[in-house]
Amino acid sequence: MQKFLQIQPEVADAIASGKAVVALESTIIAHGMPFPENIEMAKKVEEIVRENGAVPATIACIGGKVCVGLNADQLHELATSQNVMKLSRRDMPYAISHKVVGATTVAATMIGAEMAGIKFFATGGIGGVHRGSEITGDISADLQELGRTSVAVVSAGAKAILDIPKTLEYLETMGVPVIGFQSKYFGAFYSRSSGIELELDMHSPKDVAAFLQAKWKMGLAGGALISNPIPSEFEIHNSEVEPAILSAVLEAEKNGIGGKNLTPFLLARIKEITDGRSLNANLQLVYNNAKVAALISSEYSTLISSEL
Ligand code: PSU
Ligand code: MN
After folding, report:
1. How close is the Cα of 16 to the center of ligand 1, in Å?
2. Whose CA is nearest to atom 20 of ligand 1?
3. Ligand 1 pocket, CB under 6 A
4. How far is the CA of 259 from the centre of ligand 2 (A)?
5. Which residues, 6+ apart, have CB-to-CB distance to 121 below 8 Å?
6. Using CA of residue 233, residue 271, residue 283, residue 239, what is the dihedral sign?
């Protein structure tokens, strides 16, 4: 496996010594946000992870390797190139064997993180069950990945471009714990609450770390989803984004946009329709997730080291 992995020395040292490390995805850079906001976000999110006591490791496939921790040139290429492939689980072997530059989705970033030995990952929103999935069958591979790969993902819930109740049902079927961080409601990305109440609501990073320690020590492989609602000062209420979402979804349908192009299309259209308001909310919630993931990861490192 080492043959396919390239871990930055700082990240490798942190993993080897049991320090806190937070993985970050690259699809959000290449396909989730426009330039130059994407590169600013990519740098700032790493700083925030550091300020909160962990080492950041942005993941992508470059030069036939799963790169864990990227340098400034690599981040720049992901942010500006028009030829970056969007990689989920099924696409990774192609990117590696054909040395294609690929940005990792939540699913692929979890895989890279697990290969490297990283247990925490911060993103914006996960993929999920799309609206109209009963017709299109469009269910993100992120959900199956959460069921099988032992990495905890901090997100602001799931975006309302998705069918949120079905997404939560699917996660339950896959045995994925969903934990509300300081909120009993599942987050709806741009807004703090989807209106759906979660059974698990934890207040401190330490509680979440203890939960994960128990899960993995029990041999219950698979991930967990930590729903960390967007800070209230940046939230956009459902009533405001819903019309933008509806019109973006209709447009996608009319133009026959589906498969892996659907999520990037919807994100870009919602940004246009909301005059960029959605992008600012998106940036802020990613920063907040990076902070919480770093805090949980630090608590987890402390728990594990006191066990030894
Ligand atoms: N949701 C967002 N922003 C994103 C994505 C989802 O708000 O950038 C990206 C993530 O990388 C996620 C992927 O893993 O889209 C899901 O794509 P799909 O629906 O094609 O599985
Ligand atoms: Mn899909």
Report:
1. 30
2. 260
3. 25, 27-28, 32, 88, 105-106, 124-127, 140-142, 159, 260, 263, 267
4. 5
5. 22, 23, 24, 25, 106, 109, 110, 113, 151, 152, 153, 154, 293
6. positive
Q: What is the CATH number of the domain that holds 178?
A: 3.40.1790.10
Nearest CA to 177 out of 200, 196, 145, 195 is that of 200
For the CA of 155, the nearest ligand: 1
> pTM for this one?
0.97
From the CA of 124, the nearest ligand is 1
Quickly list DSSP for 236-274: --HHHHHHHHHHHHHHHHHTT--GGGHHHHHHHHHHHHT
> Which residue's alpha carbon is at the smallest distance from atom 2 of ligand 1?
125
pLDDT in tens, 32-56: 999 999 999 999 999 999 999 999 9
What digits encode the pLDDT tens for the residues 109-158? 999 999 999 999 999 999 999 999 999 999 999 999 999 999 999 999 99
Report how many domains make up the chain: 1
CA of 101 to the centre of ligand 2 (A): 20
Full residue range of the structural domain in which residue 221 is found: 2-307
Name the pairing type of β-strands 65-68 and 5-7. parallel
pLDDT in tens, 238-273: 888 999 999 999 999 999 999 999 999 999 999 999
The SS3 of residue 151 is coil
Average pLDDT value over all residues in the chain: 96
